[in-house]
Every structure is written in structure tokens, then in C-alpha cells.
From TrEMBL:
PROSITE patterns: G_PROTEIN_RECEP_F1_1, G_PROTEIN_RECEP_F1_2. Residues 43-292 form the G-protein coupled receptors family 1 profile domain. Odorant receptor. The gene is LOC100774772. This is Olfactory receptor. The chain crosses the membrane at residues 29-50, 62-80, 100-122, 142-166, 196-228, 240-263, 269-291.
């Protein structure tokens, strides 16, 4: 588990506690998380496929939504399989490199999704406030650049924070009181001064949360002003319907982020952190397809046509 390297010792393996303090819940938790993960994969893949099939959905909004679905699949797949594994096997170890790799990807995908939601808010602002110029303003080139920018920024921030963690020494204990390699759980195992990493993480977190929320708030302030000025009730309802799904997704996403990072740093708070992380990495990716598809006639129509075709092909 521990490898001596000159004057330093370096942990080469971590043990993930997960929910081991609740052995009687392991089987029901495995079943719950497995079903949730399957629903996440089917729901998000469904949105990607439905967008490709239905020409009506070849719009900027659904282009961004398909990338949101891809991100949901990715960051759920970084955490959930390992969570399922440690619920059913006794060997709950993860290598040091595997732990840092898991942290890098989850951090990159979460930051990317944070700004993808901000981009979607800007898209809704253009759609509601400048509907006649929407297709011109949100050109395919601009949409591609916005998406590429969110991915690149997510990778850059994640690389920076992961690098700061790699500069620390880990000389034991090597037990992570979590079901994955979450930042505060890794940092608690460091036997060197973590100030540099904490400052880097704090700066990046505050900058990202502030910028993404400012973009979202500014977009929705303009949207609300435009909706209030609308003379017809039909236009008001259409604009409200266009934005309600996105507002729901934003509220859940940022609400759980704030819960995660506002929890006091104490032993009693680890259960809250674990539950919040489960909500963030397991539940949110499942909820997003439901939030965006249940209120959308085009998505529901395409799904029902696909199901009808499937049933018809089986019948013949």
C-alpha cells in the first residue's frame, strides 16, 4: 500500500469506505444505484438519438441539450460503476493513478456541464428576446465554438486542480471516507501543506460558479423583462414553457453544488457529503432527460413514433 521514496513515502493504493458502515443497506443501495444508472444511460442516449432522428430538433437548443446528455453519461460513468463495485465486492481499493484519473475526469465533466448550462441560458435569452434573429445569431459555427469552449475550459481547470493535488505527499493513512475520489476526501489524506491546492481550488471554484451564475442570471433577467412586455398571453406561456425545464435543471445542479461546498468540515458531515455526491453524480444525470423531455411535445412525439414502429415491426 505504501512505497518509500527516499525521505518521502508515497501511497500507491487507496481504500474506499463507501457506505461500508451500513452493511445492511448494501444490497438495496446496489439495486437502487444500478437501476438509476441504467435509466440515466437509456434516457440520455435516447435524447441524443431522438435529436439525430427528428429534423425538428436540429436546432441550437437541442444541439446543446445533446451535449448536456453526453456530459451526464460521462460523469455518471466515472463514479457509478466504482460505486456499484464497492457495494458488492470486499476489495474496495483503487490505485493512486486510478484515483487521480477519476478525479480529473469528474472535475472536467462537472465544470464543463456548469458552463454548458450557462450557454443554454444564453441560448434561451436569444430565443425569447430576439426570436426573429435566433437562427442567425445562434449560427452552427457559434454553437460549435461555444461547446468547444466549455469542454476546453473544463479540461484546463481540471488539469490545474489535479496538478495541485499531485504536488502533495500522501504517506498514510490511505483510507478514503467516500465512494470515490472527491476533492476534500483526497485532500484529507495529504501529509504535506495543502494550502497551494486549496487556494487554486478556491479561486477556480469561485470564478466558475460566479461566472456561470452571472451569465444565467443576466440571461434570465432579460428574459423576464421581455416576457413582462409581451402583449399576448400565448407568447407569455410559450416563453415560460421554453425556459422552465432549463431553470429546473439549473436549480438542482447549482443547489447541490452549494450544498456540497457549504457543508462544515467535520467527521459528522461526511455522510452529508456522500449523500450530496450521490445526488450530484447519480441522480442529476437521470433527472435531466426527464426534465427536458416530459414537457416537450417534439421529443415525446418522436419517442412514441419510434415505439410504434418497433411494436409494428415485431408484430409483422
Amino acid at each position: 500500500m505504501v512505497l518509500d521514496m527516499g525521505n518521502q513515502s508515497s501511497v500507491t493504493m487507496f481504500i474506499l469506505l463507501g457506505f461500508s458502515e451500513y452493511p445492511h443497506l448494501r444490497a438495496p443501495l446496489f439495486l437502487l444505484f444500478f437501476i438509476t444508472y441504467m435509466v440515466t444511460l437509456i434516457g440520455n442516449l435516447g435524447i441524443i438519438v431522438v435529436r439525430r432522428i427528428n429534423p425538428k430538433l436540429h436546432t441550437p437548443m437541442y444541439f446543446f441539450l445533446s451535449h448536456l446528455s453526453l456530459l451526464d453519461i460521462c460523469y455518471s460513468s466515472v463514479f457509478t460503476p466504482k460505486l456499484l463495485e464497492i457495494l458488492i465486492v470486499e476489495d474496495r481499493t483503487i490505485s493512486f493513478k486510478g484515483c487521480m484519473t477519476q478525479f480529473f475526469f469528474i472535475c472536467a465533466f462537472v465544470i464543463t456541464e456548469m458552463f454548458m448550462l450557462a450557454v443554454m441560458a444564453y441560448d434561451r435569452f436569444v430565443a425569447v428576446c430576439n426570436p426573429l434573429l435566433y437562427t442567425v445569431a445562434m449560427s452552427p459555427k457559434l454553437c460549435a465554438l461555444l461547446v468547444a469552449g466549455t469542454y476546453m475550459w473544463g479540461v484546463f481547470c481540471s488539469l490545474t486542480i489535479t496538478y495541485s493535488l499531485l504536488q502533495l505527499s500522501y504517506c498514510g493513512p490511505n483510507i478514503i471516507n467516500h465512494f470515490g475520489c472527491e476533492y476534500s476526501a483526497i485532500l484529507s489524506l495529504s501529509c504535506s501543506d495543502p494550502t497551494f491546492s486549496q487556494v487554486i481550488c478556491l479561486i477556480i471554484s469561485i470564478f466558475n460558479e460566479t461566472c456561470s451564475l452571472l451569465i444565467i442570471l443576466a440571461s434570465y433577467v432579460f428574459i423576464v423583462v421581455t416576457i413582462i412586455k409581451m402583449p399576448s398571453k400565448g407568447g407569455f406561456q410559450k416563453a415560460l414553457s421554453t425556459c422552465s425545464s432549463h431553470l429546473t435543471a439549473i436549480s438542482i445542479f447549482h443547489g447541490i453544488i452549494l450544498l456540497l461546498y457549504c457543508v462544515p468540515n467535520s467527521k459528522n458531515s461526511w455522510l452529508v457529503v456522500k449523500v450530496a455526491t450521490v445526488l450530484f453524480t447519480v441522480m442529476i444525470p437521470m433527472l435531466n432527460p426527464l426534465i427536458y423531455s416530459l414537457r416537450n411535445k417534439d421529443v415525446k412525439g418522436t419517442v412514441s413514433r419510434l415505439m410504434t414502429l418497433k411494436l409494428h415491426s415485431h408484430a409483422t
